[in-house]
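User: Predict the complex.
Assistant: Input components as received:
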Amino acid sequence: MDELIADLPQYVQAIWDTLYIVVISLVASGVVGLVLGVALATTRSGGLLANRAAYTVLNVVVNIVRPIPFIIFVTAIDPLTILVVGTTIGPTAGAFALSVAAAFAVSRIVEQSLVGVEPGVLEAARAAGAGPVRIIATVLIPEGLGPLVLGYTFLFVGIVDMTAQVGAIGGGGLGDFAITYGAQRYNWPIVYLTVATIIVLVQVGQFAGNALARTALRR
Amino acid sequence: MGALVRIRDVSKRYGDAVALDHVTLDIEEGGVQGVIGYSGAGKSTLVRLVNGLERPTEGQVFVGDDEISALPERRLREIRGGIGMIFQQFNLFRSRTVAGNVAYPLTVAGMPRADRDRTVARLLDFVGLLDRAHQFPEQLSGGQKQRVGIARALARDPRILLADEATSALDPETTADVLALLARVNRELGVTIVLITHEMDAIRAIADRVAVMENGRVIENGDLYDVFATPTTPAAARFVRTVLHDRPSPDTVARLRASHAGRLVTIRVPDRKGFTAELSRAFAAHGVGEQLVFGGISEIAERPVGALTYALEGAEDAVHRLLDALRRTDLDVVEEG
């Protein structure tokens, strides 16, 4: 118990680091992945901006990156991380690497959500005189919002999981804390506390995501 | 009166598949032009040429003075404002309210909010759904959804309304309501309607001209009554027969032949009173007995259409003289099998 209290500042710091990494990665990969996913969904054949060459290039690039195990990918892009963030250590570097990796995953989630939107609805928008960019912003995304929100919630859980791995290679956060202060010192209460914290974090995120999706789907 | 839409020798191919095969069609301003045919006949492709959702592989499409088939996409978007469209599955935006759906084309056109709200209210009032303005599409019945679709299609005061199987997903009663609304759109607002359908009843209810399509070609086009009463091509005659069900199929003829000894003749119902009395007198005058074995009379454009099949009983030469006499009149007499 005493040790637990002694480690409290690190614990609190770890929570903040994790939240920092999760929020930055979620927003950054969310935005980049949305753009990529919209591009994938609209350039495929029959899409609003159908373009076989563009789709093939995007598809292949995403397929190359996706199967690389996350922890290897993060290490592999170290030069890029140094170029952008200046270091490979710390939450910001972790958030950057995580954002890049997650963006490709997000692109598939977005693509799947948007491909499910009725083509007839898009045709109705075209018949009303709307151009492709307007249709994407005012019809495609709003019509796919329910699945999109659920997809992003799934992503949130995945990112929390990934922060633990980033932590292990110098990113800080709860994963790092559990290993450094818990497992490596055979201090199991610290490990359990950390796991409990992560579970709470995931539950809150999932709950909020479900609630948002229900609002978007009105059911 | 010139044609509002002129489709000139248009073909449309998707790879090896031919959707339209050298189609030429004029659509007059102010009328209701029906286009009927089985699914896969090319109707939906044809209607999408008019607002440029599809471009012809060859040939030209004109709406008014604009050559739709030659305009860049950006110009087409402006022109689509003047051409409304409704769909079989309604295609309403689930993410928007009824009012939001109707407002969409106005937002696209950049109409200021106050004008937009007024226009939306006027349109919803026209289709009888003002009290549903703030509901979402899934809270409406099929007929109500199509009314919203019609209000949305009318938002920018179009000259043309394209209806692509607009009643095919509705039950008969709702179909009648929606068709009545389309008739009002045509009469009260002067909007030219192009009605694509495989349902004879929809055509019969509101079209004044009809084109019959088969395998990507327009095989007959003309006044509603003429096309159904006196189709000029064998393909059109075959199609008309299948939708009117007024002439016996080969199977039916075979069955009739088995139970009736005499000749079987089918006579087209002409547009005049006293036709059946006329026939009865002719049968009696030649001493030929008759039995009505197949057929029916229905109405198209408020005029009778149909055919009656009789089994004739009597001496061979009497029947012969009767048929000669009937053929000398304007009656269309066909001997079956």
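The first helix of chain B runs from residue 43 to 50.
Let me know if you want any component modeled separately.
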